[in-house]
Amino acid sequence: MRILVTGGTGYIGSHTVLTLLEAGHDVVVVDNLANSSQEALLRVGELAGREAAFVKADITDEQALDAVFDEHSPEAVIHFAGLKAVGESVTIPLDYYYNNVAGTIALLRSMDRHDVRSIVFSSSATVYGEHNPYPYVEKMEIGAMNPYGRTKEQIEDILSDLGASDSRWHIALLRYFNPVGAHPSGRIGEDPQGIPNNLMPFIAQVAVGRREKLMVFGGDYETPDGTCQRDFIHVVDLAEGHAAALRYLEDHAGVFRWNLGSGQGTSVLEMLRAFEAAVGSPIPFEIVARRAGDLPAFWADPSSALADLGWSTTRTVAQMCEDHWRWQKNNPMGYATA
Ligand code: UD1
């Protein structure tokens, strides 16, 4: 298949492009490089032995998208491109709604004009909000708690309305839990700009000496060790989930929602200990105040993805840490060292 991947130079995007190339697909990546490096795609090409085409463009630019559809004739789209920092989304909500929501509308209009009506969308477990009991099940009523999450929810709504309006659309909404880890080669991985917002890249930067210590946000939650529990998923498992969803869409029209998670909760301290085991030395940390907006615990019910897609996670927390550490150790400053 020929597949257009928006945001294909980013963390999850680059791993997914590699999985697609390895499966024999042709890939064209559209990315504005706002928060990523083209170096990721060069390395993906080296690993796959074959390159993805690359077009530097913004998804809000319909003319640029039209040109990509005209030149590359993709048959399906995997849509990652978007802004993703929760805190920043509270400060600059218009940027989030414009890039994520208006950008998706531009993409869908361009797809429709070119008779391409298969799309896998990068959604988030954050759409489940704070009112749902865990494990989260796809049929639950969603309701995000911050502008970033609401962009994901609104895009899900737009795609659901589109699918209901025209039976030619094949739409997968993939709700990711907490993606971590890296390709086992250590060549590609997560490379956040500035101070990492998320747990795993922060731990990794402490381990490699870029930061002094991990701040554990809250040690007094009603959880077994007092720290929050999350459903961590290896980024290569996640990438394979996209390939499985794409296969499913080939012969299923409609709108489908799948959780991509392991179904298991791991606490912040358990993750820290697992990372220490991968590194082989202690990682300094301090328990500080809770972070606003954090939920004590949640994880996926991943049984729908298993039943429909034949997909489930296969990589352990230990592997997530070993692979993440290999990437960070070999690339202490991320792609900037290249
Ligand atoms: C966050 C977002 C979520 C988004 C996801 C991926 C919030 C509330 N949620 O998920 O919407 O889809 O990232 O971008 O921001 N932690 C520390 N110290 C740190 C960093 C994190 O203790 O330096 C803790 C957090 O308090 C949390 C856990 O680690 O308990 C996981 O945090 P994080 O990696 O940011 O993911 P989420 O908050 O689950």
Characterization of this structure:
41% of the residues lie in helices and 17% in strands. The chain is an alpha/beta fold and 338 residues long. Helix 9 (268-279) packs across helix 11 (317-330). The chain has a 7-stranded parallel beta sheet, sandwiched between helices. Strands 7-10 form a two-stranded parallel ribbon. The longest helix is centred in the first third of the chain and has 21 residues, at 93-113. The chain has 11 helices and 13 strands. It has a domain at 2-181 and 232-261: 3-Layer(aba) Sandwich (Rossmann fold). The two termini are 31 Å apart. The protein binds uridine-diphosphate-N-acetylglucosamine (UD1). The site of uridine-diphosphate-N-acetylglucosamine (UD1) has 20 residues, from helix 7 and strand 8.
Summarize the structure.
This protein is 41% helix and 17% strand. With 338 residues, the protein is of the alpha/beta class.
List its salient traits.
binds uridine-diphosphate-N-acetylglucosamine; two-stranded parallel ribbon; alpha/beta; Rossmann fold
Which ligands appear in the coordinates?
Answer: uridine-diphosphate-N-acetylglucosamine
- Silhouette: globular
Strand content: 15-25%
The top level CATH class name of the domain at 2-181 and 232-261: Alpha Beta
CATH level-3 fold name of the domain at 2-181 and 232-261 = Rossmann fold
Number of strands: 13
- CATH superfamily membership of the domain at 2-181 and 232-261: NAD(P)-binding Rossmann-like Domain
How is the biggest beta sheet arranged?
7 strands, parallel
Cross-sheet strand order for the largest sheet = 3-2-1-4-5-6-11
Fraction of residues in H or I helices:
40-55%
